[in-house]
Design brief:
Elements: H1 16-28, H2 33-37, E1 46-49, H3 57-62, E2 65-68, H4 70-82
Antiparallel strand pairs: 1-2
Length: 110
Amino acid sequence: MAALHNRPWREWYNDAQYRARRKHQLQKQPMCEECLAQGRTTPATIADHVEPHGGDIRKFRTGTLRSLCKPCHDRKWSDDRRGYSTAVGLDGYPIDPAHPANKFRTTTCL
């Protein structure tokens, strides 16, 4: 597998059109959306492609963006490779139903 910095699509991030989309996204939602979902307020620094573009220029240019902080973005990359999210809810349990810790977990209503 080629090193990330050797992939031609890495240059797309320097494109003026993308930089304008990124700036607009971070102005529209300046806080990290993953952190907000977990009750934290963290400034966002990255306009993340919700659906990974995988080198597809159409997906890169038109795909939905969301605002993330660097730690959440880095975790997303790891989670994408792993196949499930490692994010936890306020109760400390993983929020992704596909997480192995949730395989045998049951919830009860009182």
